[in-house]
Each structure stands twice: as C-alpha cells, then as structure tokens.
Automatic annotation (TrEMBL):
GO terms for cellular component: membrane. PANTHER family: AB HYDROLASE SUPERFAMILY PROTEIN YCLE, MONOACYLGLYCEROL LIPASE. This is 3-oxoadipate enol-lactonase. Keywords: Hydrolase. Its EC number is 3.1.1.24.
Amino acid sequence: MDTIIIGPHAPRLAVSVAGQGPLVLMVHGMGGDRTTWHAQIEALQPHFTAASVDLRGYGGSGDIEGPLDFHRDFGADLLTVLDHFNAPRAHLVGLSMGSRVVRSLALRHPERVASLVLANGSPGFDAMTAEDVERFIADRSAGFAGGRVPASFGMDQARAMCAPDAAPEALRIAADAMQRIRLANYLAVLDASTRQDRGDLLERIACPTLVISSDQDRVYPEYVTQQLVDRIPGAVHARIEHAGHLSNLEQPEAFNRAVLDFLL
C-alpha cells in the first residue's frame, strides 16, 4: 500500500492506494481518516485500484481554509482524486459522514459515479428544526475545554460508537483516528455538515447503490438507514451483524464480502 500526496494546489490531499483496475474510492466519517479503510484496501486491491482519501481538514491533507461548503468542497476533493487517477468514473464507498459526501457527489456529478456504497449513513438532517440543529452542534462541540482535544477523546468516542464487544484492534484504529482530529477543522465540519446537508433528493440517485447497516449501530440505527433503502431507486441492503457504527472496522470480513459481492 502506498501513500501519495496530491498537490501542489491547496488543499493538498493524502491518499492511500493499492492495486490496479477500476477505481474504488473510500471516504471516512467525521471522526475518521483514510487509515480506517486499510482492511478494505487490502481486500479490494486484487480487483480494483483501491484508495482512501483524507478529506481536507483530516489526516495528511491540508487544513480547511475559509468557510466550508459541505457539498462543494468535499465534492471537489473527491473529483481531484478521480482526476489524479484519470478515472472518468469511480465506485464510491462512504461510512457515516463519508456516505453523505459520496451520495452528494452522485447527485451533483452523476457522470463521475459508477456506484455507491453507503455504510452506516443517513439521509441528512431534514428532520431537524432550527433549534434541533443548534442543540446538536452545541452538544457535540462541548468538552473541548481550552480549545484542546482531551487525551481520552479518541477512545471515549470509539467505545461509544462501536458494539460493546468490539475487538481491541478495531477500537484502537478508531480511537487513534479520532484522537488525531485537528479541532478547528473538526468543528468546522460539524457545523457545515449539520447545517448544509439538507434537502438532497435521494430519489434522483441513478447509479447502483448498496446500503449497509449494522445491528448495533446507536448513531444511525437501522430505521434511519432504511430510509436510504426506501428512497434510492433500486438500492440493495446488506446488514452487518455484531457491529456498531463503524462496521468496516468492527466486522471487516463481513463488510468486505458485502462490498465485493456488490461490485463484482
């Protein structure tokens, strides 16, 4: 597996990649980064060019500069990666927030998206009132006294998201990624994604779509992911057993099998 930096124009983007063939690009959640997809890159690389990207503000990629436009800016990051690999179209895989990023691209640039895998995701924040939005952002911005990420933040978040019996290695990978967040970037993403991810017409998604849910996801329970299945034409559904919100880390073999069965 190689790490490449796409630049020199801002923001630089860090990408992990292995294999040859059609491009499969994987996109992390709000507290993740590209390292959370390494088990998927290994599984997919015999058949595909398998890559995971750090969105701007995460991991080895450049910081967010100025106000963040959730759809435009993160969509631009994905298009930059596709262009780097000379891929007219790509299979996109997203977890949690990453699933919202990739379905946004499928709606705004359908000609660039061959298929979607939406794992542990949601339709957006349409159901929230203005008061709900403010409360949601405030609740998730609390706990950063002095503008710092607490030393226990990563593991606390990992344990809250994963199933109670999650493997220690899954917890470690998730916790390490969450502990690496750059706070100003994280808070900017939290604010922009909550306020702006509203009104997407999922009924217009035209590419093949796999929706993945988990039996123990407390962040987006299955009744939330079922809305994606119901609203996206022709969407198929795979359920990962014994997993919480981070299904690709908690049950990588089952996750990889579902994705490969869908793509091959």
